[in-house]
Design brief:
This protein folds into 3 domains: 281 residues, 2-enoyl-CoA Hydratase, Chain A, domain 1, CATH 3.90.226; 180 residues, 3-Layer(aba) Sandwich (Rossmann fold), CATH 3.40.50.720; 183 residues, N-(1-d-carboxylethyl)-l-norvaline Dehydrogenase, domain 2 (Orthogonal Bundle), CATH 1.10.1040.50. The protein has 31 helices and 20 strands. The strands form 4 sheets. Strands 13-12-11-14-15-16-17-18 form an 8-stranded mixed beta sheet, sandwiched between helices. It has a 7-stranded mixed beta sheet with strand order 1-2-3-4-5-7-10, with helices on both faces. Strands 6-8-9 form a 3-stranded mixed beta sheet. It is globular. By secondary structure, the chain is α/β, with parallel strands linked by helices.
């Protein structure tokens, strides 16, 4: 044993080589934490002290190689100064350089996922062998930073600047065959041959059959690009990536700039450029919020995993009610491997459901994401039926009939008589109380809500709604099924609108108020899209459907009359009464025309103004900041109320539900992190300044106390 630590071991091998093994004690994965980096420094010094080592093999004892740096440390470390962060990165560069400069050939055996710092680590060695199932990548830009430990220096010199930019700006995980083709890997083999192949490469290098010194010099020298080539590569890339990333995500373009600035320099100077750029990006609000998003996502996954341990996977499911929603649920279940029955009362609806599944699978086939055989296999897992004949062995049924309380109650009671006594029933309702639906059931403990967002195949969130009588088994089974479908389940308690819709409708209330005060809905849309929403409120209402919005608004008004009930006719009613349903009938706030691909594209409709004008009560001149405040304050306050009312368990779950459910701007971190970023007291002051607009803007006593105590939602 040359070195023994808690995360790293170095063994002397019988052929004169040494093996450095990453193996974090008591952990399922390897990460490059502060402690691990410290150990790596000690291990390298121990290797340097041995004069008889002929070569070094780096490997991992875990299923993955190294999944990256320890992101749980980021918020603490990134709070330091730019100078501190630059110096910290330069110390890691010095360590990685000492591996790259060892006086003998080196090789990495990549057995699994190698991302971020893990990928940068393996780039230090002369050769890389990948298992055919392994992936490598530099996803730092997804966290609002850039590779900081040499990824932006070594990767372009290995695979070319254009390829490296694509990997780094896109933050992609790249398969072994792609890495081999690009030159990031030297061999790809099955996992059982990985270690032997890596050792064979060392032997070949030691015998002089592979020029390991030349490999090393290639990574240390400037990029081989003439001025014209350099301009074409970098300027073209910056323009394309800036357009794709948008103004709120600067990291991809900053990564390109750092690569470009270091392209003409040798290793150390290029690394200094990278370290400084990393330090600048690590201090941004975007980075702070995206790192927070990652940590929140981990918490949500951890909670779901705890539920999964309580029950077995669902082997056979059913969806009641076909059509677009039922077809979407059936497709999602079948495409992820869980057989599902799709029942309706008429053949036409069943055919519509099958058509939806066929359309989604056909799209995947066209994009070559699946084969014709895989499409047929997936469709084979969907069994359409007009009867309950085979429902006795269905373990979980999703009720997805029309959003009408009486219809749902009748269908659920009928369904309960057709399934096994221990079968779980979940209602896909967006607003109707789970407690009220459970009243007529004989086994309410087996019932809960399972709210999918439309379109099912794209929206990652599923709200699992706990009723007063829902058992832990029912919740655990529904969470597990949602996970099987590839969704992110978040458990919430029952109330009108549950979590996401309860929060969304005060946002729409802010919009209705703005229109009544004379704001142009088109301008409001543009301001909120510039703020970061994927679409403005008017456009979103058109996509949701004005009929759906009016119905949901009535439910919310009945549930929370003190702040969500509005006297008289609203702009939503005006649209609905005029027969404008939004995209579904091509006319709402906007008109919709199909593009070349048959997708609806919004165009301006001047006749909308005439419908709105009778409802306008004033003609205020508002700044963009005032529009944002009037939209965001009600949404944020309702999120606070949901947390205080125990509708949702944690700030992390509330924020993730908004991001995954309605597209809250990810770079802002969620509603509660948005309040934290502003400062709780500053947010309270802002809300108080708008108090005359009505109860939607009223601050809760608990939030006022939190502000007085200088507290925040996140530590």
């Amino acid at each position: 044993m040359i070195y023994q630590g808690k995360a790293i071991q170095v063994h002397a091998l019988s052929d004169g080589n040494a093996e450095l093994i990453f193996d974090r004690e008591g952990q399922a994965i390897n990460v490059l934490s502060t402690d691990t980096i410290k150990e790596l420094g000690e291990a390298v010094k121990a290797i340097q002290a041995k004069s008889d080592i002929k070569g070094l093999l780096m490997s991992s004892a875990k299923e993955a190689f190294i999944v990256g740096a320890d992101i749980t440390e980021f918020h603490g470390i990134f709070g330091e100064t730019e100078e501190f962060l630059t110096d910290m990165n330069l110390q890691v560069h010095e360590l990685f350089n000492s591996i790259e400069d060892l006086p003998f050939p080196t090789v990495t055996a990549i057995n699994g996922l190698a991302l971020g710092g893990g990928c940068e680590m393996l780039l230090t060695t002369d050769f890389r062998v990948m298992a055919d199932t392994a992936k490598i990548g530099l996803p730092e830009t997804k966290l609002g930073i850039i590779p900081g430990w040499g990824g932006g220096v070594r990767l372009p010199r290995l695979i070319g600047a254009d390829n490296a930019i694509e990997w780094i700006a896109g933050g992609t995980e790249n398969r072994a065959d792609v890495a081999l083709k690009m030159g990031a890997a030297d061999a790809v083999v099955s996992n059982d041959k990985l270690r032997d192949t890596a050792l064979d490469l060392l032997t070949e290098a030691q015998a002089g059959n592979l020029d390991w010194q030349a490999r090393r010099e290639q990574k240390k020298a400037p990029l081989k690009l003439n001025p014209i080539e350099s301009m074409m590569v970098f300027e073209t890339a910056k323009g394309f990536v800036a357009g794709k990333a948008g103004p709120h995500y600067p990291a991809p373009v900053e990564a390109i700039k750092a690569i470009q600035k270091g392209a003409t320099a040798k290793r150390e100077k290029a690394q200094l450029v990278e370290a400084k750029t990393f330090a600048k990006m690590a201090r941004t609000d975007v980075c702070f919020n995206l790192v927070g998003l990652f940590l929140n996502d981990q918490l949500v996954k951890k909670k779901a995993a705890a539920y999964e341990k309580q029950v077995n996977p669902v082997k056979k499911a059913a969806v009641l009610g076909a059509g677009i929603m039922g077809g979407g649920v059936a497709y999602q279940s079948a495409s992820k491997g869980t057989p599902i029955m799709m029942k309706d009362i008429n053949e036409e609806a069943l055919q519509l459901g099958l058509k939806e599944a066929n359309k989604l699978l056909g799209g995947q086939l066209k994009r070559k994401r699946i084969t014709a055989a895989q499409m047929a296999e997936t469709l084979g897992r969907i069994r359409p039926t007009l009867s309950y004949g085979d429902f006795k062995d269905v373990e979980l049924t999703v009720e997805a009939v029309v959003e009408n309380a009486k219809v749902k109650a009748s269908v659920l009671a009928e369904l309960e008589d057709q399934v096994a006594d221990d079968a779980i029933i979940a209602s896909n309702t967006s607003t109707i109380s789970i407690n009220s639906l459970a009243k007529n059931l004989k086994r309410p403990e087996n019932f809960c809500g399972m709210h999918f967002f439309n379109p099912v195949h794209r929206m990652p969130l599923v709200e699992v709604i706990r009723g007063e009588k829902s058992s832990e088994t029912a919740i655990a089974a529904t969470v597990t099924y949602a996970k099987q479908m590839g969704k992110t389940p978040i458990v919430v308690n029952d109330c009108p609108g549950f979590l996401v819709n309860r929060i969304l409708f005060p946002y729409f209330g802010g919009f209705i108020g703005l229109v009544e005060q004379g704001a142009d809905f088109r301008r409001v849309d543009k301001v909120m899209e510039k703020f970061g929403w994927p679409m403005g409120p008017a456009y979103l209402l058109d996509v949701v459907g004005l009929d759906t919005a009016v119905h949901a608004n009535e439910v919310m008004a009945e549930g929370f009359p003190d702040r969500m009930k509005r006297e008289g006719k609203t702009v939503l009613n005006a649209m609905y009464d005029a027969g404008r349903l939004g995209q579904k009938n091509a006319t709402g706030f906007y008109k919709y025309e199909e593009d070349r691909k048959g997708k609806p594209q919004k165009v301006n409709d001047e006749t909308t103004d005439a419908l709105i004008q009778p409802l306008v009560k004033a003609n205020e001149e508002l700044t963009d900041e005032q529009i944002i405040a009037r939209m965001m304050v009600p949404l944020c306050l309702e999120t606070v109320r949901c947390l205080e009312d125990n509708i949702v368990g944690t700030p992390a779950e509330a924020d993730m539900a908004l991001i995954y459910g309605i597209g809250f701007p990810p770079f802002r971190g969620g509603a509660l992190r948005y309040i934290d970023a502003m400062g709780v007291q500053a947010f309270v002051d802002l809300a108080d300044s708008l108090a005359d607009l009505g109860p939607l803007y009223a601050v809760t006593d608990k939030l006022r106390a939190k502000a007085a105590n200088n507290e925040s939602f996140y530590s």
